[in-house]
Amino acid sequence: MSFTYTFYKHIMFRHSCGVCPYTNTKRPSDITIADFWGWEKTDSDINKDDKGVSLVLVNTEKGRELFEAVKDRMIVIPAKLEDCLQPNLQHPSVIHPQRMDFERDYERKGFLYVMKKYGDMGWRYKIATLSIRVKKRIKKLIRTR
Fold it and tell me: Which of residues 124 and 63 earns the better pLDDT score?
């Protein structure tokens, strides 16, 4: 999907993602919940269904109390902090050099334009677009005969 492609290229991130002051483990929230990138280092069997694994970081004493109150309703597997340090827990996102161009083009020309210019519309989109063009040409040929 083109949206996902452009998201992972970091071209459509908000400017604030590149200067976020919360990209570390010293967070002001009581609890941080995130996707657990690195679960394999903790237990290679915990994601057998391939649905992903959530990460819960307890940041304060209040967070610890809240977590203790609900953890019996979850499958909890303790992990080392160093195995949980995904990029956004270490530094702000690196913003794509064309990010401002992307935003300007989006404002001026719209979503479909930027997905075609910066994204990867994928083979299904390309086939569907080609199919529409072929159908139009065939109809035009039939009308001119």
Answer: 63
pLDDT in tens, 18-42: 999 989 988 899 999 998 988 888 8
**How confident is the model over 126-139, as pLDDT tens digits?**
676 777 788 888 88
**All structural domains of the chain with their residue ranges:** 1-15+94-145, 21-89
The rounded distance, in Å, linking the Cα atoms of 22 and 20 is 6
Tokens of 70: 């609900």
How far apart are the C-alpha atoms of 31 and 12, rounded to whole Å?
Answer: 27
φ, ψ of residue 45 to 5 degrees: the values are: -95, -10
CA angle 12, 13, 14 (to 5 degrees): 120
Task: Pick the closest to residue 25 from 92, 81, 93, 94 (CA basis).
Answer: 81
Q: What are phi and psi of 102, to 5 degrees?
A: -55, -50
In the numeric block, the tokens 């609890």 are attached to 31
